[in-house]
Amino acid sequence: MTSFMDAMVPIFGIIGVFGMPAVIVWTALHFNNKKKEQFHTSLQKLIASGQELTPELMQSIPGYQAEESKDSDVKGGAVLIGIGIGIVLLGYFGMHNSIVWGSGLLVACLGVGLLSAGIYSKRDSSEDA
Question: Does the keyword Plastid apply (predicted)?
Fold first, then answer.
């Protein structure tokens, strides 16, 4: 009986490691699609009733999502840089592990790229105005 249990632990471990990210992504996408579907159904009912669509009315419809602001890239980049620096410090001082240190540098570099993209797009849109 113990050999069966010993064989099941790695199987469930592999399923958990590779299955959980898929479940998390599926759940997020599923509920995002349900929210969009609810918004479009409500919008179709309003159009069919002949009601005038004002911005205030649009915002009151369940599932409404405003456009992302240009600051979201800057904010996300700053957060990624902070997380990357934290991982670097953990790898350097806490664990003395170069793999963790390198992973932190990778995350920080992603943050620098996202931050610079946000700053560039903000500057580019202000020049167009």
Answer: no
Tell me the C-alpha distance between 32 and 60, whole Å: 17
- Percent of the chain at pLDDT > 90 equals 2
Same domain, 97 and 123: yes
Shared-domain flag, residues 61 and 75: no
Phi-psi region of 53 (alpha: psi -120 to 50; beta: other; left: phi over 0): beta
d(CA 129, CA 113): 25
Mean pLDDT (whole number) for 78-100: 82
Do 53 and 110 sit in the same domain of this protein? no
- Radius of gyration of the CA atoms of the chain, in A: 23
Is the whole-model pTM more than 0.85? no
